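Quick question, first post here. What does this chain look like in 3D?
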Amino acid sequence: MRFILFLLAALLCNKSYSGETSGSLKLFTLKTGGYTRVYRVYSPQNTDKAGKYPLLVILHGGGGTGKGMPRLTRGGFEKLADKNGALLAYPDGIDKNWNDYRADKSRKAQRENIDDVAFISAMLDEIAKGYPVDASRVYAAGISNGAMMSYTLACRAADRFAAAAPVAGAMPENLAAACAPSRPVPVLILNGTKDSLVHWEGGFVTGPFGKKKLGRTISVEKSRDFWLEKNSCKAAKEVTKLDSDPEDGTSVTREAYSSCSGGSAVEFIRIDGGGHTWPGGTQYLPEFVIGKTSRELDANTEIWNFFMKHPMPPKP
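> Answer (accepted):
Ran it through. Tokens below.
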């Protein structure tokens, strides 16, 4: 049974999206750090080469690929890119994993300390050569291992990324201990309280059914507090609650902290009853394995709206 579930997850996480989009998705390779790396770029139809477009870097979870992310998100970012004008990048981790400094020795990327920050930075340079990228509006979002990698980019590449949006992830302990971003970084955090893989209370990340220990994180709330401190946010916050779909078994509490240094912000979306899932996205495995996918909100739209409020501040 477990083998069938893992096989199903692999198929869903790596299968390309077949929904309606008007743009083009192109595959690229890049040699860096002794490896040939892979990434894909989505551009809307009639992209103006003389223009300047936001670039969203979307990071897959452990065991996934960039190719499968549009299926998880139901093509939400492609639709937003088509409507508003934006570029999307979907890179692949080594052996389907990122080095998020979680010290998970079962993963090659972490065991061999592969420099994924350098790869993604080099990818940005290559994309900018062929696409009209607005360097002040480059962003990182991801789920699970990809969420932790987006935290890593906020810590170690704050000069390249205007904001970050981790979903169903928490700050790895090792990363939190060493994180020293070069500037305040706006962060949008989305987590479910019933995540059975990346646990709300922190500690060991576990595989399905809790059988594997895959490195340690601080708690989700401490991850929020970490960025409130790094961004020098004042205690004042705006709290809103949402339970528009009682049938989905989840509800949402949003905390918005806007009085932060350097024009930064922290938004914290707590999904009570939510699992290791992408809100509004595909239920890629049964609920008894990964928990519920909330239908209270759409993570794609939440991330897009947050990002568009936070371009990179001008250099002094």
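DSSP finds ten helices and twelve strands in the chain.
The chain has a mean pLDDT of 92.
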